[in-house]
């Protein structure tokens, strides 16, 4: 894991699928677990989904809060 990947979790949106447009940090745990069981996609998106699944699975999502404050997202 690279430290900048944590920042990407709160700034990068899911590019496709059921949760297209939702921040990776906001994806629901069951969806992340589904990917963990199915296999994460290749490339950066797969790395970010795997990282978020690990964070969520271990109950560490609150560690992203300081980064969320640094990168507020405008609601549509």
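-> sequence recovered:
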């Amino acid at each position: 894991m690279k430290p900048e990947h944590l920042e990407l979790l709160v700034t990068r949106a899911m590019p496709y699928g059921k949760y297209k447009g939702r921040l990776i940090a906001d994806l629901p745990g069951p969806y992340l677990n589904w990917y963990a069981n199915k296999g994460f996609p290749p490339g950066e998106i797969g790395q970010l989904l795997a990282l978020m699944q690990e964070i969520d699975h271990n109950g560490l999502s609150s560690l992203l809060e300081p980064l969320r404050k640094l990168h507020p997202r405008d609601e549509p």
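The radius of gyration is 12 Å.
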